[in-house]
Amino acid sequence: MSSHIMSAFDEELKYLNRRISEMGGLAEQMCADAVHALVNGDSALAQKVISDDVILDNAEREIQEKAIVTIAKRQPMAADLREIIGTLRIAADLERVGDLGKNNAKRVIAVQGTGVPRKLARGLEHLSELALVQLKEVLDVFANRSAQKAEAIRQRDEEIDAMYTSLFRELLTYMMEDPRNITTCTHLLFCAKNIERIGDHATNIAETIYYIATGAQPQGERPKDDSSNTLGAVVE
Amino acid sequence: MNMMTEAAVEKALDQRMNDLSYKMIGKDVSVYYGEKRALFDVNLNVRQNTVTALIGPSGCGKSTFLRTLNRMNDTIDSCRVTGRITLDGDDIYDPAIDVVELRARVGMVFQKPNPFPKSIYENISYGPRIHGLARSKTDMDQIVEASLQRAGLWNEVKDRLQESGTGLSGGQQQRLCIARAIAVSPEVILMDEPCSALDPIATAKVEELIHELRSNYTIVIVTHSMQQAARVSQRTAMFHLGQLVEENDTDKMFTNPDDQRTQDYIMGRFG
Ligand SMILES: Nc1ncnc2c1ncn2[C@@H]1O[C@H](COP(=O)(O)OP(=O)(O)OP(=O)(O)O)[C@@H](O)[C@H]1O
Ligand SMILES: [Mg+2]
């Protein structure tokens, strides 16, 4: 797209974009670190994730303030308006991603007693990889604004949901096998749910990018393959 | 009657209904100033009880188009208009049309305030008097007060109605001209950048007035403020180099316009 006649407006938009990319990078790192800390019982790393969250919160607040000033000052129209509103939404999603990463980090101490069984660790890592790939790709798409790619990412949320459901099933099995696993497994269950929600936020971001690029909401229901809500029936 | 013709009849009826919902229809309107062509085959319809905003860069022909709607271009010697413009289905360029009556039905507020060099009262009462709209002095007083009230000027001038209209400030003069335009109860009101000389409060009053007038009148407004167009209009038409490049619902126009030139213009980008 061509430049604004007021070059300062371009600078403001570029700044917001850069801050979103930074938030995205940090959120991604936090989530990866949290799972790492969890499976390795690394409480120092967990502590770092917890303190990184403050940076992310501040970044969201700063983006919000800057965006509001830009709206008041420039009275943006059309694609510019969509971009700024989109930026606000994406910043909020990334802030939530950070919270979920932090929540996972907080559970490191709780599961340290028993440690995380190898098989479950692998499942969690795999789920986390899927969600992080999703997040990473969506941030790349944010940089190049491809509606087509945003749509493709949105379609892939299904994979994460399916993986989450299978991990959920596995955790239930562990708990039934030995009630002493219940505490750890419950925490891991929350962790898995958190990771699945990180994927949801990545999908939200993909939808926002699609809107910024086209001015339309993506068509059709978001694909869902999370059947964990009916899994109680399986245990019967 | 088979299905096809029935559908065709229905379509023709729909078309007819559509035409009726247009207060004015402009078809292939071109305007020349001497050799210079200022408008190129503009097809733009003005919907009844709707505010239509005309936007576009300076010199693109907004005022020129607006003036064709009540034949204000007749007053410019070099100016020639081709195409067809109708008001309630009647060709306004028909030689049988009484131009004075046309301009009472299609009133205008100009870019620069142009009060008559007469008293404030007479500025308003002139139109209603020549069109025989007041039966008595009380009637006329009422029209003058109501018009000034609606234009948001009454409180500022109620004690000086006999003073000259040209003695008012620029913004007050503009509101006086708006009061003058609505005093004759026109069906269509054309406004050419009516707020360009007004402060934010007076602008808000005029916008509120436009909002109010919309239920009974049809309004076409030229504005350089994208926010104003977005606030007051339901339809927006974008002109560029004498051509109509896009006409759309205002909400769509300012969030996701179809034409690249509209995009660049409203976002303040280099085209
Ligand atoms: N009386 C006139 N004689 C000759 N040319 C004219 C006359 N009025 C307008 N034009 C020309 O016609 C073109 C369209 O002018 P018009 O006044 O309609 O533009 P506009 O869109 O209203 O611009 P602005 O936003 O600056 O008021 C311009 O090139 C202008 O120079
Ligand atoms: Mg003009």
Automatic annotation (TrEMBL), chain A:
The name this protein goes by in its record: Phosphate-specific transport system accessory protein PhoU
Gene3D superfamilies per record: Phosphate transport system protein phou homolog 2, domain 2
Location of the region described as Disordered in the Swiss-Prot/TrEMBL record: 217-236
Primary localization class, coarse: cytoplasm
GO CC annotations, alphabetized: cytoplasm
Organism: Rhizobium rhizoryzae
Domain of life: Bacteria
Record keywords, A-Z: Cytoplasm, Phosphate transport, Transport
GO annotation, biological process: intracellular phosphate ion homeostasis; negative regulation of phosphate metabolic process; phosphate ion transport
Primary role: Plays a role in the regulation of phosphate uptake.
